[in-house]
Amino acid sequence: MAECGRVDSNTSSGHAMDKSITLPPDEIFRNLENAKRFAIDIGGSLTKLAYYSTVQHKVAKVRSFDHNAKEAASDKLYEISVQEEVTARLHFIKFENAYIETCLDFIKDHLVNTETKVIKATGGGAHKFKELIEKKLGLKVDKEDEMTSLIKGCNFVLKNIPHEAFVYAKHADSEFRFQTTNPDIFPYLLVNIGSGVSIVKVESEDKFERIGGSSIGGGTFWGLGALLTKTKRFDELLQLASKGQHTSVDMLVKDIYGGSYGCLGLTGDLIASSFGKSATADKEFSKEDMAKSLLHMISNDIGQLACLYAKLHNLSRVYFGGFFIRGHPVTMHTITYSINFFTKGEVQALFLRHEGYLGAIGAFLKGAEEDNPNQYSWGENYAGSSGLMSVSPEMNPMQRARSGTFDMLEMDRLERQLVNLPLLQDPSSYIPDTVDLTEDAPAREYWLYCFEEALDGVVKRALASQPDMPEAAVRAEKFRQKYRHKLQTLRHQPFAYGSLTVRSLLDTREHCLNEFNFPDPYSKIKEHENDVALKYYQKAVKSLEELSWEDKQFALVRGVLAGNVFDWGAKAVSDVLESDPEFGFEEAKQQLEERPWLVDCYDQWLERLKGPPHKCALFFVDNSGVDIILGVMPFVRELLSRGTEVVLASNSGPALNDVTNSELQILTERIAAMDPVIQTSLQEDRLTLVQSGSSSPCLDLSRLDKVLAMVVRERKTDLVVIEGMGRAIHTNYYAALSCESLKLAVIKNSWLADRLGGKLFSVVFKYEVPAGKPSRDDGALTP
Amino acid sequence: MAFNGHQCDDDIVDETPSKLPRCNQEMPGHFKNEPQNEATAADGRATCERRTSNSTPRHRKDSVKKTRPPFPWFGMDIGGTLVKLVYFEPKDITAEEEQEEVENLKSIRRYLTSNTAYGTTGIRDVHLELQDLTLCGRKGNLHFIRFPTHDLPVFLQMVRNKHFSSLHTTLCATGGGAYKFESDFRTMADLQLHKLDELDCLIRGVLYIDSVMSGGPVDSECYYFENPTDPDHCVQRPYPLENPYPLLLVNIGSGVSILAVYSKNNYKRVTGTSLGGGTFLGLCCLLTGCSTFEEALEIASQGESTRVDKLVRDIYGGDYERFGLPGWAVASSFGNMMCKEKRESVSKEDLARATLVTITNNIGSITRMCALNENIERVVFVGNFLRVNTLSMKLLAYAMDYWSKGQLKALFLRHEGYFGAVGALLELLHPSESSTNFS
C-alpha cells in the first residue's frame, strides 16, 4: 500500500527543528541553472526532488596536426586542447519535509532559463503540498501513480547502478553483501512496506501487477508502537526496539513446550505467540521490549507473506523497500531473518541502495519519456552522490556531523550504451573486482592509506596540467578536500557506494577530478611519452625481426611486460619516472622478474602459438607511451602477421596515463606511416580500434561499449588479452571467459606483490583456455 | 468424515451390542505401562489397520476388550494459554461394576459431572457435551472442560488430593505443556504422562468428532456461513464433511498452525504464525487494560476499527482502481494511530475491535495464500480463538470468499478448541502406530 497519506507534522522532522536552513548552493541543488523536467516525491517524512540538467565541463581533446600544411609548426606529436563539453546529468536530492518551503524558494531563485512548465509529483504527500509547489515554483503539478513510479525507478536503478542491490547480514564481517548486476533483471518481486504493504510482481519494463499486500506494515509498527510506548516518532520507536528484549513479551515455543518442538523442527526460541505473555492485567512491560516484540511480529508477518507470494509465483528475487526499510539496519535485519526462516535460505531478502529515490526517479522518467532516458546507459557519479546512508547515528557518526539532512544522488548520462562482453562465461556470476575491500579489512586499510598518501601527488599533477590557469589552485584544493572527504566516508562506511574496491577508489578519484575540471592531468605527460616512444618504434621492431621465431615470441611478451612497467598510476614507478627522466625501455626490462614468473603460463602460450592462428584477438590496452607503442604494438603486429585480426580496445575517456581511444587513433596512424604491416592491416580492416566505453583505469567487462560488443561478436573473437594491473589484477583476475584469454601484468605495488606471494615487479602471465570448450567454437559466443 | 479408525470400532459395537458389558467385566486391569503389553498395543493398532479387511467380528471384538483401558478416561491438551480436558463419563456402569469401583474413581466422576465450574477458573462447556456416545464399547457422555494453563498447579494439587495416581491409569496428554509440565505431573501428582504429538491428536480429534456428530440428532459438527459478503443475509448453515480431503486445517490457539490434510494419516504442517489468539488478547490487555478473552471480545464488539485503521479510501479518496482495491479495505492496520490527534480520540472499544480485525484478517490472508500454494479449496478453522467469537468467524468467512472470488470456503467446527484433547483421549483407547513408540 501507499506510503502514509497524512502524517502529523511533528513526526516528520522531530521536535522544534529549525526550518529556515541556509542551503550551501555549491553542494546541493547543483546545476539548477540548466535544470529542466522536475519531479517530486513527497513521502511521510522525506521529500525527494529529481531534475535533469546539463553540465558543462572541460574535456581534453587531442587532434592530429595537419602534417601536410605545416610539418615544422611544432615539435609536438599532436594538439591537446581543453574544450567545453555538455553532458546530461540527473540530480536527485532527498531532504526532510520540514525544509520543503526553503527548498522551493531556493529552487525558484536559482532556476533561470528553463522552459519547464510542469512538475511530476508522486507520493502520499503530493496533494498536501500541491498548492505550495504551484505557488512557489509557478509550475503545474501533475500527479503520477505511485506504484508505477516506484517500479519505473526500481527498474532504472537495477539496470544502471552496479551494486545497487544487497543482502544484509548483521553479524557477518561486512554487513552489506552487494549483488552483481544481472543483465536480466526481470522477473522480480518488490515488497514495498509503507504504512501498509504492497507486493508487486514485475515482469518487464512496462508489465507489473500488484499481486497482493497486507495491512500490517510500517503504519502498524508506528501506530501501534505509538499507542503502546507513548513514543511518537518512527525513528525513536526503532531505537527502542533495537534495545528491547522480545522474550519478555512474546510467548516462545519453549514457554509452551519447555524446550523445542522437536518433531516439527521448531526451536525453543521461536515465537509461538506474539505478545502472548502480555495477556495479563497485572504486569508492566518495558517500552523497549514491547517495541521489539512489535517489530518482530510485523517483520515476520511481512516476511512470511512475501515468501508465500514468491513461492506461488515462483520468483526468487525479492526486493524490499518503503519507509519501514529505508536503510534501517534494525528492520533490514528482522526482515532478512524472517525470509531466511520461512524459505530455509532459498530466497534472499534483497535491499536497494537508492531505495528512497525510486518514486522520484520513476516519476521523473515518466515525465522525461520524450528524452528517451531508457535508451541510454547511466552511471552513478561518485563525486556528486552521498552514498548509502544509515539513519542510525551509532552506526554512522559522519552523517549527523554533516548537514545530515540532505542526501544526493547524481547520475551521468554516458555517451555510449553499455553492455556485457559477449565472451563472459557466465554474465550473472561475473564479478569484475578481485578483492572486495568491504570484506577484507587489512586490504581496505592499506588501500585507503595508499590513496590518502597519493593525494598530494595527484593534486600536484592536476595543477601542473593547467599551468596557464590561475584559479586552478583553488579548484585543486577543492578537489583535495572532496576526495579526502570521500576517503574518510569510506573509512567509516566502506559500503557507501556498493562494494569498496580499488576500482571504485580509482573511479571516485576520476569523478572528483572531473568535478573540478581537471579532465586529464596526464595529457602532456602522455603526449611526451608517446612522442619519445614513437621514435624508437622502428628500431624495436627491427631488432625483434632479427630474432629466431621462438626468441621473438618471448621477446614480444617481455616487451609487453616491460612496457607495462611505465605506469604513473603506480607509486613505485612514478617515483622512478619522476626522478629519472631517462628511465627507458631497457631499464624497465632489467627490472622484470626472471622466469619462472609469479604466475607463469608462458610455455602453454608458446605451444598454442605453434598451432593455428587465432581468428580474432581483442586486446584491452593500458598505458600510453612505451607500453602501447613499444610493448603492445609489436605484439599486435605479430598477431596480425600470423593472420589474426586484432581489435584494440582503449578507454573512451582519460584515466591516469592510460591511452585513450582518440590518442590511440593518432598513434596508430603514425605507426602505420612507418610500418607497412600496420598500414595494410588498417586498410584491410584487420586492425580495428574501438573504445571500451569506460574512463576507468580498471575494467568492468559487464559495462562495455555496445559497438565493442558488436565487433567482438561479428569477428568471432577467440582470444582476449587484458593488460596491466588495473585491468588484469585489480579486476578480472578471476574473470572466466568463454574463449582463450591472456592476462598479463607487472606487479608494481610491493604490498600487493607481497599479498600474492611475489615481490615488486613480479610478473603475472596467465593464459587460460576454457575447460572442455574448443576455443574456436562459435557456440561459445553468447548473444 | 466417514473413514476413520474409531468409527470402525463403533461398527463392531453395533454388531455385538449385547455382549459388550460382559466384555468389559472380563477385561483385566490395565494394559499400559506394563512390559508384556507391547504386543497388546500392537494389536490395538492392528484393529485399525484391519478395518477394511474381512476378518470376523468375533476376532475384532476380542481385540477390543483386550485393549480397553481402565477408567477414568481422560484426554488432555495443555496449550500455551488454556488446558483442555475431555472426560468420558460411562453411563452403562453395572451394579457389579459400581460395587467394584474404587472410591477415588467415583469421587472424580461425581466432582466433574455434578459441577460446571471448578475452582475460580475451570469451566465445563456444557453445551458441547456429547451424550450417549459409544466409545470402545462403553456408552456414556463426553465432557469438555477447560482452565487457564497458569492454573495448572492448582489442578495438579487437586489431582494429588484426589489420589488420582492410585487409579493406575494412563493420562494421555498433548500440547506443549505435556512436555513442559511432564516433571511437574510426576513430582506433584505422581503421574506419568503419556505424551502425544499435538497435530496428530488434533487431526484425530477433528475426524472423530465430525464422524460421531454426522447423522446424529444434533446439528452437524461442521458449519459455514451462507452469504458471507452480505451482512444482512449471512447465516450459519450445516456443512456435511462427507469427503473432506484435501483440506486445510487452521488451528488458532495462542499461535496459529496451518495443516494440509490429505488423508487420515497423511498431513503436513504447512506453516504457522505467531499472530494468533494470544496476540489478540495480549495486545488488548496492553491497549485496554482488560484481562480476559471474554472481556476483550465484549469490548471489541462495541468498537469501530475504522477509526483506528487507515483504509484505502482514507488514502485514495475511494477505491484504488488501478489495483482493484476497494475503498473499504484496510490499507494500514492501526495506520491512523500514527497521528497524535487520532490517537487521542479513539476509544478502548475501537482499539480492541481493530486488534481483533487485524489479527483475524492476517490469519485470513496467510491461510488464503497457503490454500493457493497447496491448491486446496476447503479450509476448516478450529481453535479456542474462535470460541464465542462470531465476529472473527464471519470476518474469516468474508475474507476467504471475497479475496478468492468465491473459490475458498471457510468451515468451522462446534468443538472449536477441544480436538487435541479428544485426540489424546482416542490415543488412550486406540493407540496408533506412532504412539506405540512412546510406551
Adjacency order of strands in the biggest sheet of chain A: 5-4-1-2-3-16-15
- Structural class call of chain A reads alpha/beta
Note the beta-strand portion of chain B. 15-25%
User: How many distinct beta strands of chain A?
Assistant: 25
**Share of helical residues of chain B:** 40-55%
Strand content of chain A: 15-25%
Largest sheet of chain B at a glance? 8 strands, mixed
Q: How much is the average pLDDT of chain A?
A: 87
**Envelope shape of chain B:** globular
| Rg on CA atoms of chain A, Å | 29 Å
Largest sheet geometry of chain A = 7 strands, mixed
Work out the oligomeric state of the chains in this entry.
Answer: heterodimer
Q: In CATH, what is the class of the largest domain in chain B?
A: Alpha Beta
The total count of helices of chain B amounts to 18
Structural class of chain B: alpha+beta
Terminal Cα span of chain A = 39 Å
CATH C-level label of the largest domain in chain A:
Alpha Beta
The number of domains of chain A? 4
Keywords (chain B): ATP-binding, Coenzyme A biosynthesis, Cytoplasm, Kinase, Nucleotide-binding, Phosphoprotein, Transferase
Protein name (chain B): pantothenate kinase
Pathway (chain B): Cofactor biosynthesis; coenzyme A biosynthesis; CoA from (R)-pantothenate: step 1/5
Biased composition (Basic residues) (chain B): 57-68
